[in-house]
Every structure is written in C-alpha cells, then in structure tokens.
C-alpha cells in the first residue's frame, strides 16, 4: 500500500477532498519524522511506537573479498506495534 492508496481510502470513507486528505496525511508523516529527528518517541495508542535506536559500531565483512571492514555507529528507526495491532494481525 502506498501513500496514495491511503489517501484514496480515506477520501472514499470520509468524502473529504483528495487534495485536503493528501495534505493532512503528508503533514502527519512530517510531524512524525520531525519528532524522530529530535530523538523523541512517537507513541500512537493502539497502533504502535516509533523510536530511534542507536546501533553500535561493529566489524562487517566485504562479501567479495572476505575482508573485515569497520561499520560506524548509526541511528535507526524502530517500530513496535501496539497490542490492538498485534491482536488484529495474528
């Protein structure tokens, strides 16, 4: 499912103009990304939690040469689904 699919479903279910729904959906995503950039946790009840986790530095392996290469530490976004989502997906 793409962002456009989400916009179309919301438009069909609510009758709100597609342009307006698209702006709202995009703004929602922007707010989530901005919060994560500030290292804040985004908790959406019954949906899940987005947060930033730091991966430590490690050594990886170049698959072509087998040579060991350092991989620097980095931040990644993790998502933990809420209880309601877990029950619905089972």
Write a concise keyword list for the protein shown above.
single chain, 90 residues, alpha+beta, HU Protein, Chain A, 2 domains, two-stranded antiparallel sheet, 3 helices
Question: Can you give a write-up of this model?
Answer:
- This protein has 90 residues and is of the alpha+beta class.
- It is 43% helix and 30% strand.
- It has helices spanning 3-14, 18-37, 83-89, and strands at residues 42-44, 48-55, 58-61, 68-71, 74-81.
- It has a three-stranded antiparallel sheet with strand order 1-2-5.
- 1% of the residues are buried.
Question: Layout of SSEs?
Answer:
Blueprint: H1 3-14, H2 18-37, E1 42-44, E2 48-55, E3 58-61, E4 68-71, E5 74-81, H3 83-89
Residue share in helices? 40-55%
Look at the helices and sheets and give the structural class: alpha+beta
Rounded Rg: 19 Å
How many helix segments? 3
Q: How is the main sheet built?
A: 3 strands, antiparallel
Oligomeric state of the chains present here: single chain
Measure the end-to-end span.
Answer: 19 Å
Strands ordered across the widest β-sheet = 1-2-5
Mean pLDDT: 95
List the uncertain runs.
none
What name goes with the CATH superfamily of the largest domain? IHF-like DNA-binding proteins
Give the overall form: elongated
Strand-and-helix sequence, N→C? Answer: HHEEEEEH
How many β-strands, per DSSP?
5
Percent of residues in beta strands: 25-35%
How many domains, as an integer? 2
What is the level 1 CATH name of the largest domain?
A: Few Secondary Structures
CATH architecture of the largest domain: Irregular
By CATH, the topology of the largest domain is: HU Protein, Chain A
């Amino acid at each position: 499912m793409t962002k456009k699919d989400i916009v179309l479903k919301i438009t069909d279910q609510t009758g709100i103009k597609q342009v307006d729904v698209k702006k709202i959906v995009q703004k929602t995503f922007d707010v989530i990304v901005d919060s994560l950039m500030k290292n804040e946790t985004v908790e959406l009840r019954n949906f899940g939690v987005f947060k930033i986790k730091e991966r430590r530095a490690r050594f990886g392996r170049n698959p072509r040469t087998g040579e060991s290469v350092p991989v620097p530490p980095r931040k990644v976004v993790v998502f933990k689904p809420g209880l309601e989502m877990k029950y619905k997906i089972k």
